[in-house]
Amino acid sequence: MSAPTDGQLGTAAAVRLVAGREISTRLRTKAFIWTTALFVAAVVLGGVLLHAIGGQDDDGVPVAFTPSATAAIPAFEATATGLGATVQTSELDPAAGEQALTDGDVDVLVTSVDPMLSVTVDSAVPQQLQPVLAAFAQQLALASAVTDLGGDPADVAEQVATAAPEVTALDPEPARDGGQIVAGYLAGILLFISLMTAGQLVAQGVVEEKSSRVVELLLATLRPAQLMAGKVLGIGVVGLIQVGLVVGSGAATASVLGLLDSSALDLGTTALWALAWFVVGFATYALVLGALGALVSRQEDVGSVIGPVTTLMIIPYVIGVSILPWDPTNALATWLSYVPFCAPMLMPIRIALGAATTAEALLALAISLAIIPALVWLAGRIYAGAVLHSGGRMKIRDALRGT
Amino acid sequence: MPALSIDSLSKAYGSVQALRDMSFDVNAGEIFGFVGSNGAGKSTTMRIVLGVLATDAGEVRWDGRPLDLHVRRRIGYMPEERGLYPRMKVGEHLVYLGRLHGLDRAAARTAMEHWTQVLGIEARRDDEVLKLSLGNQQRVQLAAALVHGPEILVLDEPFSGLDPVAVDVMSQVLRDQARAGVPVMFSSHQLELVERLCDRVGIVRAGSMVAIGGIDELRQTPQRRWFVDGAPPDAWLGHVPAARLVSSDAVSSGAAGSVVEVADPSLTTVDQELLAAALAAGPVREFARVRPSLTELYRGVVSSDVSTTETPSASTSTTSTSATNEVSA
């Protein structure tokens, strides 16, 4: 073909036009608007819910003290903290305290600390407070005995509080970080769903042009490669916008609500890697699914022709979300996270879990990018050979032969 | 004057030979009608012209040069299988196609507005294509072929499924395009329309061009026929030995009469002899040359056996129901 001489459409302009049509028509579809809204709502609501549940725990078990016992509040709180329990203390007179117990506003009412601990409960002592109350009672008894022996109870209490065993672990268990686990899950689920959806959109888009026959009109002015590139690019941008909105709203929710204050999760890095892996994974799967879609002429046949690939997509996903969060260094999942087609779903989970170094992530990215030129060549040939074929399903071999 | 040359195209689909040595030219400013039965190779030829199908042999040239993608972008094409995005709005769709053919946004928009106006679908610009009736979708399809101001028009069955008003609109558009110097090539099974509209006609059978020429040229057959409304032929036909009776109860323009035929084209004054003989036998109310219609030519060509003569010979195989013959004075 000769070079453009008279201001006619070059390849870049043609691809841009095709991609622009895909973007502008798809962004306006109800399907896009609703799925994006639902995704964003789910992520934001999930964050809020998590915050609400976490917030309740932070408040701690409500424990009230009668005026005669309030002097022991600091010591009680120290004991509770030492045993890993959170309590919320308040002061109530005995009558109001019992009423609060009946109403369920407080769980425990401390009525006396001298000479020994006396508490009133509605029906039973809450489970998490039992060790606290037992320890506190022992502490009070000890203080009383120390005083009787002429010692300083505060001195003894301090020594007791700072005493701790020195532990040597032969095989220390790594610290589990809740924030990282949740992020790993979300990364895996989001990438699986978005790659699956966007990949299927490409296959359906190819078949839409075949079944409506508009492809013949288009190919009278475009080369097959330009049409396919524009379609993949356009749907990719739409998918990236969707993933970006979901990831962005999730990250914003998490940082506004302070969900990750106590987590080692690097939110920004994890979010950017998720977007990068969407781009690479989409390029990989869109080329394959677009070429396969070209083999059939009716929307009803899309599912069966892309079925083998979409089924294979489930494998890295299942491995990713069922093994990695519990075993971030699992050998199988680690190896698969370097394999193209698997990497886009496994590597983001490892990154979120903090189980992959930047170098490892970049290596996996390089491997996945390296096969894309081969996929472009193969998919382009299958597409060009099959896209004008109408009727039944075409064999890949015939499409490659260009008949 | 530039011409679209279809030169010796051959195409096989597996064991089926769709085209064999298909050759013809369409000149600038000419409306060329492409007729032939289903499967004769019309659509295959057009698809090869547009480059959506590769030819096995031969080539297509415009102005003496082989057609490349850049010339093809200047063709207006209406595929046999209508194709538009069903969920795209008519106006946006046409603008998009205009831009794919190299127009900028403003020019594409102006062209869209012009053609939707001309084709009477300006009120439907903001409707999705699938909301339109089939006839209106057809108008959009024609607008899609015209929106980029094509230098060549290749239209596969542009008239199928159109109401009479739309046929008139479409015909006028094709005439205007031809007048502007565009070579217009279209296929149709509506032969009266082809006869009325086309400067030249090509009849294809089994992948080859079997008859091509101007309508009048094609209708020039060696056998000449006349319609005579006068005395019964028994009374006078014997005086002209070269003539034979084809039908004694033909109808033309509401008048009943006979059709006689002279097979020898060298008898240049035989029409005067026939008229004189008929007048001698009684009053003659009508005496007219009968030329075969395109429909008859077509029937003759497509029904004759592949191995027989490839020249148009309408009268040999058509039944002599001259009631359907067109009479020209």
Automatic annotation (TrEMBL), chain A:
Pfam family, one: ABC2_membrane_3
Annotated compartments: Membrane
Ranges for domain ABC-2 type transporter transmembrane: 30-379
Membrane protein topology class: Multi-pass membrane protein
Spans through the membrane: 31-53, 182-203, 232-260, 272-295, 302-326, 332-349, 361-384
Assigned keywords, A-Z: Membrane, Transmembrane, Transmembrane helix
Domain of life: Bacteria
MF term (GO), any: ABC-type transporter activity
GO CC terms in record: membrane
Main location: membrane
PANTHER family (alphabetical): ABC TRANSPORTER PERMEASE, ABC TRANSPORTER PERMEASE PROTEIN NATB
Protein name as it appears in the record: ABC transporter permease
Species assigned in the record: Cellulomonas composti
From TrEMBL, chain B:
UniProt KW keywords: Antibiotic resistance, ATP-binding, Nucleotide-binding, Transport
InterPro entries recorded: AAA+_ATPase (IPR003593), ABC_transporter-like_ATP-bd (IPR003439), ABC_transporter-like_CS (IPR017871), ABC_transporter_ATP-binding (IPR050763), P-loop_NTPase (IPR027417)
Compartment annotation: Cell membrane
One biological process term in Gene Ontology: response to antibiotic
Keyword Secreted: no
Domain annotation ABC transporter: ranges: 4-231
Region ranges (Disordered): 305-329
Domain of life the protein comes from: Bacteria
GO cellular component, as recorded: plasma membrane
Low complexity composition bias: residue spans: 307-329
A GO molecular function held by the record: ATP hydrolysis activity
Pfam families recorded: ABC_tran
Membrane topology listed for this record: Peripheral membrane protein
Family classification: Belongs to the ABC transporter superfamily.
Name of protein: ABC transporter ATP-binding protein
Source organism of the structure: Cellulomonas composti
